[in-house]
Amino acid sequence: MPFRDIAGHRHLLELVAGAVARQSLPPSLIFAGPEGVGKRTAALALAQVLNCLAPVRADGQAAEVDSASLFGLEDQAVSTASSAGQADAGAFAIDACGTCASCLRIARQVHADVLVVEPGDTGVIKVDQVRDIVERTGYRPFEGRRRVIIVDEADAMLSEAQNALLKTLEEPPSASMFVLVTSMPDELLPTVRSRCQRLRFGRLAPAEIASVLMRVHDYSETDAHAAASAADGSIGAALESGSDELVEARDAAKDVLQHVASSTDPRRRLDGAKMIAGGGDRDELRRRLRAMASILRDLGVIRAMPAGSEQEYLANADLGEPLRRLAAAFDHDRVARGFAAIDKALEAIDRNASPKIVADWVAFQL
How far is the C-alpha of 108 from the C-alpha of 183, rounded, in Å? Predict the structure, then answer.
């Protein structure tokens, strides 16, 4: 997909687009960041803009790309200062159309000049795989302007494979570029890291993840927000989670907070503890505690921001009015106390403490 359709990382992608437009894109990049935040998708989007048959400018007009000088290597870094105007404008200096034959083939990963290398069944990238792509970079692109080699999970390259790639990174062919995608950049050899410009991808906001889940994966609004709030900034983690379990856990967490919000009656709090405990199942208790932490975080946001301005920052935005009613009962100190209690409770569960005792203790701390 084009840059404009990628969830999150807006400023970073604008810098990359600006470097392409200025013809100052480094020939070797490392896309580093947590798993499941869209690094590989961004690498494919870069391949699209470099080979798009009808690239567009920020104003929507067609952009002319000089295939002979698309890489100006005088500036080996993506400069924040020189791209500040583009970032402030909120638009990409250049982007792929996303609909031409080249863009569609890249999206399907069947483009002759966009090569994706990834670990095989053994979980590693072997030296023969790297030697194959190095050999192919010696030839001119078959159908595109630039050959783009994307090494996914680059940290899985064996040392021999990384050394086989090193000379090519030192003297990159003029018609080829490399993008090493990794969640563990420090696993790459220092000599490899030193020859690549590193771009750091952060975690996605829950609202961004929920939007992708609804738009691309047909999640309901409730399922999307429940999965996003527990995903720790990763679309991959959200997709791997069981949305039904997360929805149930979040509902239980909300009910507990509502239960204890306006009462200090010990019996009422013990009733709340039963909702937290999840029948004594440790994994279910963890899910409910994490869901409670996510809701408490949202209550802190609501208390800290002007009314009506907090919606895009909420992990559980679909809960809407129930969150705002809860926020009235949870001031800053109570939210902080709840966070601390949940943190200690999760540690206790990991130490094999009784789920019932942990649930009872948390209910009295809220």
Answer: 23
Q: Which residues pair with 32 in a beta bridge?
A: 182, 200
DSSP label of 204: P
Q: What is the largest CA-CA distance in the chain?
A: 77
Q: For residues 226 and 29, give the distance between their C-alpha atoms in angstroms, rounded to a whole number.
A: 34
Asked if 13 and 202 touch (Cβ cutoff 8 Å), the reply is: no
Question: Rounded to two decimals, what is the model's pTM?
Answer: 0.69
Residue with tokens 């949870």: 330
Tell me, rounded to whole angstroms, the distance of Cα 87 from its chain centroid.
Answer: 20
pLDDT in tens, 258-316: 888 877 777 777 777 777 877 778 888 888 898 889 899 889 888 888 877 777 788 88
Q: Name beta bridge partners: 151.
A: 117, 180
Q: pLDDT tens digits for 90-139?
A: 378 899 999 999 999 999 999 999 999 999 888 999 999 999 998 888 88
